[in-house]
Amino acid sequence: MNQRFVDLHCDTLVTLRLENCTLENAPGHISLDRLTDGGALLQCFAAFIPTHDCAEGLGIRENAWDFFRQQAERFASMCAQCGDRLAPVKSMADLERNRAAGRVSALLTVEDGVGVEGKLSRLKTMYELGVRLITLTWNYENCFGYPNSPDPALHAKGLKDFGLEALDEMAKLGIVADVSHLSEGGFWDVARESKKPFVASHSCARALCDHSRNLTDAQLRALGDAGGVCGVNFYSKFLRENAEHTENADILRHMAYIADRAGIEAVALGSDFDGIDCTLELENYGGLPRLGEQIADRFGSDTADKICSGNALRVLRDLEVHKVHLRKSAFIRTQIFSGSALAELCGIALKEDSTAPRFQSGIGAPCRVDKTGCLFRLPGELDKGRLIAQGGQDRVQQIVPCDAQRAGVVAGVHADGVLRQQIPVHEQADLVLVIVHKAQYAHGAGREIQVP
């Protein structure tokens, strides 16, 4: 099979600096030949910003902002040197042009927002240089918040005030928030405050490997509910405790577990190539085609396409759609609820002997939402399939049957009743509440998408 791959994280840029080499002769996990021969569709190149003892150990003396600017220049130079084989992208349109021309796409990301130094204007500079994803922290405190920690008290620390402000600015610009390396308290702040899908670009499941860098079941569910993805990290010690070697089976095990908790649409690749020091069964990027075959054998070819590329691309597409909404002073927030929280949030009664939500009184029932334009989707016994309840003015206006066989898609319903945007939904969702803020969007702002 000719599988194509989107990898959400590698540290190759800093390797090029430290080894004084080019992508064409890079000695690590990733090189130009390995990308092109291995089926790369999009590789995210992190501008990792070393600080503290890490910078000292690597012999890096530049301040964080200057080092980022140098890495951005290195990225641009790397792409220019690759000719017609690899080119940078700043949008999905760029990626599609590269795909049509047979080029690998390269996306600039940032690992550790330390270089922002509390200045929102620097986020705009990063965006203009092509950054579309920022890993908010690395292993040190910065202006955004705090890193993960084995100390429960430190791990519980949340985002700083600037971090919350920066989240909003990143959403306006069109930059994905990445919670890998972030404290759990910071994760929950992002999950609560983010106005669009966020990602854990290179993390694994904590239940399978108890490391503070990995995500708990609750975090995985929240990530999936938000429409985000978890890029499975290939580092042995995040896959199996105290392991020195990564087997492909370890990667597949975490993929299956994350799919079970967060939904198959939340599983992606986040290799951490050139940033990990363990040995790997797949050896380097050239081993991805074999891993892709194993993913297809385990999950099926259609699901393998989602894991290897489709899920990550969906988040990047959503990034552009949400950016349009925000610039029109409107945004869509999608949340998935279950259990007793439904009754409080949406006026839906739960039977004592069942966790399945049901409408309290059908059409005309109060929605208990604070803005116009709400949407419900639930396993509906009223019509032997999933139902959508279109809301307006805090009242259920209409109950619409939905194809029970078509999992994973609902659509935003606005004041004029027109379905304008597909919104992916976790198959196991009990209910989805979509609130459309600001009436401008209801009158046609944004791109119309036909709903199947």
Give your account of this protein's structure:
This protein is α/β, with parallel strands linked by helices and 452 residues long. It folds into 2 domains: 5-326, TIM Barrel; 330-443, no CATH class. The protein has helices at residues 12-19, 32-37, 52-58, 64-81, 92-101, 120-128, 152-155, 161-173, 184-193, 217-225, 236-239, 248-262, 288-299, 301-327, 341-346, and strands at 5-7, 40-48, 86-88, 104-111, 133-135, 176-178, 199-203, 229-232, 245-246, 267-269, 279-280, 331-337, 348-349, 358-359, 374-380, 385-392, 395-401, 409-413, 419-424, 431-437. The strands form 6 sheets. Strands 1, 2, 3, 4, 5 and 6 form a 6-stranded parallel sheet that branches. It has a 5-stranded antiparallel sheet with strand order 12-20-15-16-17. It has a 3-stranded parallel sheet with strand order 7-8-10. It starts with a strand and ends in a 15-residue tail after the last strand. The model is unreliable at 324-452 (pLDDT under 50).
Largest sheet at a glance? 6 strands, parallel
Q: Give the name of the CATH superfamily of the largest domain.
A: Metal-dependent hydrolases
| End-to-end distance | 28 Å
Mean pLDDT: 79
Could you say how many structural domains there are in total?
Answer: 2
What is the rounded Rg? 22 Å
Helical stretch count?
15
**Which fold name corresponds to the CATH topology of the largest domain?**
TIM Barrel
- Approximate helicity band: 25-40%
**CATH class (first level) name of the largest domain:** Alpha Beta
Which features would summarize this protein structure in a list?
452 residues; alpha/beta; TIM Barrel; 2 domains; 5-stranded antiparallel beta sheet; 15 helices; 35% helix; globular
